[in-house]
Amino acid sequence: MRPRDARLVEKADFDRVFADNQRARTDFVMVMARPNQAGYPRLGMVVPKRLLARAVDRNRVKRCVRESFRQVLPELPACDFVVRLIAKPVAGDEARDLSRTFHRAGLRAMAKWPSAPAGEAAPESSSN
Q1: pLDDT-based confidence at 91, cuts 50/70/90?
Q2: Contact 125/101 with Cβ under 8 angstroms?
Q3: Domain residues for 67?
Q4: Residue 95 maps to which CATH number?
């Protein structure tokens, strides 16, 4: 899988995640997750200009998020993840605890929608 394939680019994909999701957050970002039909994790980002006015700062945050996602990609369930910046981060601290937050949001999403197609890292479903 190419890195470009692991990205959310269509508005409909973002809207589906925004409409109904499971969330996890750090001090600076909120990670929203929802199982997808693609069979592998995909990433979308929302980095508003009102929080980081300079493009160089927004791009730095996006690079840090993409790198964190790339490092945990094989371990994540088949979910669409949208990372939204919710507070202005301290430079160099953008991706702190982000990999753990990806896992937490993905596990919550897979628990909420157990009938969704599961990737290799999906948890075992228990009897209800």
Answers
A1: confident
A2: no
A3: 3-111
A4: 3.30.230.10
